[in-house]
């Protein structure tokens, strides 16, 4: 029989991380104490983070403001250094915890590479960003330089269409420009168009004022033109930006209008250059570890904040289109992990997002950079995301005045800023560990990084009627995913096995089969810990109907013995009495 006990991994895992709750005190501006939450369903590294987290909406050891972390400034010894819980998620099933500032306890070894944990997810997983390879001693001492990224790359090879801000993109509508010297003073402009039998017709038209210097700032309600003195054309042109020298436009055909073009450009039909390179790297290096990763959302937030000249009904042609992420993180300084449009929620499964990913891998977002301690156009040399390299985020910014589809890049100074998608930048893949994945050992430091346990444990629920359960494997505290596990149950005397259930960590039943031998079963080890629960009945002997329960059986046999002795004594005494009577 194999010894059944609590796995040493689980015991060892928490020893270095037991924290006195008093040291994690957070107070609000009224000196009320604010407590973090540690849900009972948290597992692995997420639980370790929760045990060491401060609420981010009050004053704590490295946050001097009683209002909490200020995201309009970089991280520091007075504005966040450590692990924090997003206060607005405190009552969620899985609150969000994140690393911020100059921390050195978020290093992880996984899949033969080093990673930096960034935050937890809304399913209890842990997101982490690539940080190179372990050194010759197996440590994750790498912090800066090109080795912290898998390669450098453009985000896309072209920037002359709004489509190119996408991690994936659809139809490309390239911009064109027309100089004022080539714009006829008699051109006609329409507020809208109709389309029939291959021909566009301008509606609600206005004629040129005679000069472009007067026309360019009067087209907010008349963006469509045939670039002629006519009101019909086979292709129509939509002007989205103007200045005193140029008109910038895209060409529409086949009955498309500007609303259709915007939808077409954001369809996820073509991989960006960045996605192609990350997918290739993942397939080569991490595909065998996919079972340990969760299918979480990677947000390429293309929701529009300021549409301006791309709005045909009054859109200002003197202002550029910008995305909501720019306003949210670089103007209002309010990072958020909400990804509002399913179109932008990159996942493998369509039940969780858009289902467009081949592998569960993406890039960091600008919101996550802000939580970590970054700020737009403000250097930060000390926080853990600064590698002295420029590298890409997944966050779009705007479509600039002329060409230039631009996304957020984290610069070598530690600041975030905008850059054309054709610029070379580093690629640092982001993956997310599943909730059940446990830490085998380590404390997260560079010289003692967390090491992930790739196996799972089997637990046997204590049952007094179980005499023994034997397994075909040596160590049930560390079982490889996909391994066939065979076990045999031996009840104590007087009991027979009625049935059993196998449960995963969420109490869902796991299938198993009988081997054909008495009380012997097998199952395939899933990506979760397993608990075996047994149920018994008292054994009944059908041959003589004598109950063989140890206690009941002894009682019946005792009564039979007493009865037999009684009969014997009765006849002995009776015989003795007769002899006495005769002698008398």
Provide the helix percentage.
Answer: 10-25%
Mean pLDDT: 90
Estimate what percentage of residues fall within beta strands.
Answer: 25-35%
How can the largest sheet be summarized? 7 strands, antiparallel
Task: Report the principal-axis shape.
Answer: elongated
C-alpha-based Rg, rounded: 36 Å
Number of helices: 8
Give a description of the structure.
The protein has 584 residues and is α+β, with helices and mostly antiparallel strands. It has four domains: 8-158 and 269-433, no CATH class; 171-265, no CATH class; 458-538, Immunoglobulin-like; 551-584. It is 15% helix and 28% strand. The protein is built from eight helices and 36 strands. The strands form ten sheets. Strands 11-17-16-14-12-13-15 form a seven-stranded antiparallel β-sheet, with no helix packed on it. It is elongated, with a radius of gyration of 36 Å. The termini are far apart. The model is unreliable at 1-23 and 545-553 (pLDDT under 50).
């Amino acid at each position: 029989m194999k010894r059944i006990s609590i796995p040493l991994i689980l015991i060892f895992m928490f020893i270095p991380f037991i924290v006195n709750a008093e040291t994690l005190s957070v107070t609000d501006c009224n000196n009320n104490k604010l407590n973090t939450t540690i849900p009972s369903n948290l597992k692995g590294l997420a639980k370790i983070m929760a045990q060491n987290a401060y609420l981010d909406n009050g004053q704590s050891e490295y946050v001097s403001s009683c209002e909490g972390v200020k995201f309009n400034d970089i991280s520091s010894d007075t504005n966040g250094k450590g692990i924090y819980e997003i206060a607005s998620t405190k009552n969620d099933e899985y609150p969000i915890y994140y690393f911020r500032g100059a921390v050195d306890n978020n290093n992880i070894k996984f899949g033969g590479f080093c990673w930096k944990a960034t935050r937890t997810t809304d399913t209890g997983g842990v997101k982490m960003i690539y940080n190179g390879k372990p050194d010759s001693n197996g440590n994750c001492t790498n912090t800066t330089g090109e080795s912290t990224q898998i390669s450098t790359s453009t985000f896309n090879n072209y920037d002359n269409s709004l489509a190119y801000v996408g991690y994936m993109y659809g139809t490309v509508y390239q911009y064109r420009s027309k100089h004022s010297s080539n714009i006829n003073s008699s051109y006609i402009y329409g507020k809208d168009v109709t389309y029939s039998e291959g021909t566009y017709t301008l509606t609600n038209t206005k004629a040129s004022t005679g000069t472009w210097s007067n026309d360019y700032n009067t087209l907010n309600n008349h963006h469509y033109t045939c670039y002629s003195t006519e009101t019909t054309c086979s292709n129509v042109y939509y002007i989205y930006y103007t200045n005193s020298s140029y008109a910038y436009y895209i060409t529409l055909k086949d009955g498309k209008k500007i609303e259709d073009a915007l939808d077409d450009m954001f369809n996820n039909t073509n991989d960006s250059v960045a996605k192609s390179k990350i997918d290739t790297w993942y397939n080569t290096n991490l595909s065998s570890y996919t079972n340990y990763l969760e299918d979480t959302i990677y947000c390429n937030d293309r929701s529009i904040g300021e549409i301006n000249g791309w709005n045909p009904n009054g859109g200002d042609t003197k202002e550029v289109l910008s995305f909501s992420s720019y306003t949210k993180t670089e103007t209002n300084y309010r990072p958020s992990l909400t990804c509002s449009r399913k179109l932008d929620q990159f996942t493998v499964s369509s039940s969780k997002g858009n289902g467009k990913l081949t592998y569960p891998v993406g890039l960091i977002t600008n919101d996550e950079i802000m939580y970590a301690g970054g700020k737009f156009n403000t250097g930060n040399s000390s926080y853990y995301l600064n590698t002295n390299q420029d590298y890409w985020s997944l966050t779009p910014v705007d479509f600039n005045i002329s060409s230039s589809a631009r996304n957020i890049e984290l610069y070598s100074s530690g600041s975030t800023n905008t850059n054309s998608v054709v610029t070379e930048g580093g690629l640092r893949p982001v993956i997310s560990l599943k909730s059940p994945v446990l830490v085998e050992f380590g404390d997260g430091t560079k010289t003692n990084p967390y090491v992930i346990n790739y196996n799972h444990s089997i637990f046997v629920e204590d049952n007094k009627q179980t005499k023994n359960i034997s397994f075909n494997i040596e160590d049930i505290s560390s079982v490889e995913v996909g391994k066939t596990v065979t076990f045999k149950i031996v009840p104590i005397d007087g009991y027979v096995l009625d049935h059993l259930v196998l449960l995963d960590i969420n109490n869902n039943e796991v299938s198993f089969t009988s081997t054909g031998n008495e009380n012997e079963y097998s199952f395939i080890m899933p990506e979760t810990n397993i608990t075996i629960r047994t149920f018994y009945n008292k054994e009944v002997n059908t041959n003589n109907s004598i109950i063989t329960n140890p206690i009941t059986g002894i009682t019946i046999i005792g009564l039979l013995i007493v009865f037999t002795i009684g009969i014997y004594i009765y006849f002995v005494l009776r015989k003795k009495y007769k002899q006495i009577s005769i002698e008398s």
